[in-house]
Amino acid sequence: MGRYRLTRRGFLQASALLAASTALPRSVLSGDGAPPATAGAVFYLPGYRPQRARYEGIPLSHHPDFTEGIPAGYEGPRTMVSRLAWNGTVKRRVFPLKGHQITVDRRFPLALFNSIDHPAMVTFDRHSLALDRLLEPHAEGFVGGGHALFTPDGCCLAVLERREMRPFTGRAEDHYGAIVLRDPISMQVMAVHSCHGVNPHEIRMVDDHIVAISNYGSAGWPVERGQRPDPFVVEPSITLVDLRNGALVEKYVGLDPQLEIRHLAVDGRGGLLAIQTRLVAAQQEPRLAGGSGRLYEADDTVDYRLWFAPAPLYSITAGERSPVPLADPMDQRQGQSILYDPRHDEFIVTYTSSHRIAVIDGTRRRVKRVIETDRLGLHYPRGLQPLPDTGLYAVSGSWRNIHLFERGTHRPVPQGVHYETWFGHSHMSVI
């Protein structure tokens, strides 16, 4: 028997580990403690602060091995892309833009890195990350809107562009953004449609030719009211637009005109669930958080002059519009990413500032559960994607790491954690 002696503490620890592993279905476990099979998934994550990464004592933002595509003399913002194959291979490249979301598809060799509030976008080779070309908005006065998508039929890359931020003119129409349809290979502009909303951000397919767009609704503060760091919200909305002709199919203005509408997902029945955001001046934090009776972190994902206050989700189903609040308002701060899981008829939402994941019943639009991700070692959850051909989904922390969860049960996968630093991001893409 050797000299090993089983103590009561050791027995309890072993029992707990055995229970945790046997509680998970065999489909998400592989071999002898190896990471679960991910069907060759490849992850793409922006890095908002490449200057915080170092190689050979030099910030990646300016290291020649990572900045081949940045023109000489360029002095604008720089954003990094990290490409992770789940086997651990990581490639990184820094690009000349204020990047936000990466749109990538296995059908096409190029990925689009859309910017947000910046007049430059880039395309790059999705394998090597080599820069393909710099793209300008379709017209003067427009900037990147953050998100894009490849259409299901493969004909187009639909890219959101915003109007440049300027003081509110008194007419919402003066601030409407655009849907720019580009050829997915040549990136030439094929058509331009109004998105019929102010400050568009995320775009999702509703059916073969209709898209849903979340529009922040925020413009610059009117000149007569001075400048403030918190947004001036004039018309938050969700618009449904026909890509064939640009026709406005439907428009849903927010129930609370002070809440930006930033992200959304579509269920299999044409219903919508959107993330609303309340970004306020930091001086309002004591009033809005007072009485919560809980300890929470000061949020370092936002400007020190601002604070993410609680905001409910916005549900649209069968023509009915309603808020979907969580039981504890402090759990619903800075909703970031949202997806719909058709297999289990659930919406999944990450809340960055409160370190939470919320699961919403897709039919009844009721909160099923709230997961405290900080207790799992996942802080500031941001990116959220299902893994292709598996029963899993992935959640990325704003600064580091990716955790896997089982769809339906939402149990964390014990071997499903990849430890890597991303240097700040909002969304993750997976193919």
Description:
It contains two helices and 33 strands. With 431 residues, the protein is mainly beta. It has a domain at 137-253. Strands 20, 21, 22, 23 and 24 form a five-stranded antiparallel sheet that branches. The chain has a four-stranded antiparallel sheet with strand order 5-4-1-33, with no helix packed on it. Strands 6-7-8-9 form a four-stranded antiparallel sheet, with no helix packed on it. The longest helix has 15 residues, at 8-22. The protein is globular and about 50 Å long.
Which regions have little confidence, pLDDT < 50, spanning 5+ residues? 1-34
Distance between the termini: 49 Å
* Radius of gyration (Å): 22 Å
Number of helices: 2
Instruction: Give the CA-based shape.
Output: globular
- Residue share in helices? under 10%
Main beta sheet: strand number and arrangement?
A: 5 strands, antiparallel
Q: What amount of the residues lies in strands? A: 35-45%
E-strand count: 33
- Average predicted confidence as pLDDT: 91
Global structural class:
mainly beta
Pfam families: DUF1513
Signal peptide: 1-19
Protein name: DUF1513 domain-containing protein
Organism: Sedimenticola thiotaurini
